[in-house]
């Protein structure tokens, strides 16, 4: 079954989580420490690997305990199944000048974690460099 929520409902949901994260003050800040939100509020593990999927635009991944991710480690390609609540970002995002991009991708993957908690049947998902044109993630973004 597919459940849809409106953008307004998603905003309300996110505002509620941010309120809890910042300690319940009335004013939502203009910016949020996404690393702390993901690690301490969502209680996710964030790791950095060299992602080597055939699609070179894949730079972020949210594990679901089922779908493997292909990485290169120690000079060898491996397919790893990451558990739920694990976000894998490409090491490329640690390069100088990629900080904003890294935080954006981390926030995007946090959205998948939240969507998965609302709908545990939602699949693992890749974040692509050009994500807006990909149906793989769009499909999940619009279905909660
Ligand atoms: Zn995505």
Strand order within the widest sheet?
Answer: 4-3-1-5-2-6
Poorly predicted runs are 138-144
Mean pLDDT: 83
What is the H-and-E element order? HHEEEEEHEH
Features:
single chain; 144 residues; alpha+beta; 6-stranded mixed β-sheet; 4 helices; globular; disordered C terminus; binds zinc ion
What does this structure look like?
It is built from four helices and six strands. The protein is α+β, with helices and mostly antiparallel strands. It has one domain. The protein has a six-stranded mixed sheet with strand order 4-3-1-5-2-6. The termini are close together. The relative contact order is 0.18. The structure holds zinc ion. The site of zinc ion has 6 residues, from helix 3 and strand 6.
Concise description?
This protein is α+β, with helices and mostly antiparallel strands and 144 residues long.
SSE layout and pairing:
Layout: H1 7-22, H2 34-41, E1 45-51, E2 58-62, E3 68-73, E4 76-81, E5 86-90, H3 99-118, E6 125-128, H4 135-141
Parallel strand pairs: 1-5
Antiparallel strand pairs: 1-3, 2-5, 2-6, 3-4
């Amino acid at each position: 079954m597919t459940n849809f929520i409106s953008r307004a409902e998603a905003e309300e949901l996110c505002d509620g989580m941010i309120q809890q994260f910042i300690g319940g003050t009335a004013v939502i800040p203009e910016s949020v420490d996404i690393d702390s939100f993901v690690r301490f509020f969502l209680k996710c593990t964030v790791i950095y690997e060299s992602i080597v999927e055939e699609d070179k635009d894949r730079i972020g991944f949210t594990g679901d305990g089922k779908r493997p991710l292909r990485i290169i480690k120690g000079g060898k390609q491996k397919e790893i199944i990451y558990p739920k609540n694990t976000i894998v970002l490409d090491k490329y995002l640690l390069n100088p000048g990629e900080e904003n991009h890294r935080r954006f991708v981390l926030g995007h993957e946090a959205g998948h974690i939240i969507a998965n908690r609302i709908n545990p049947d939602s699949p693992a998902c890749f974040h692509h460099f050009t994500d807006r044109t990909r149906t793989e993630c769009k499909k999940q973004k619009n279905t909660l």
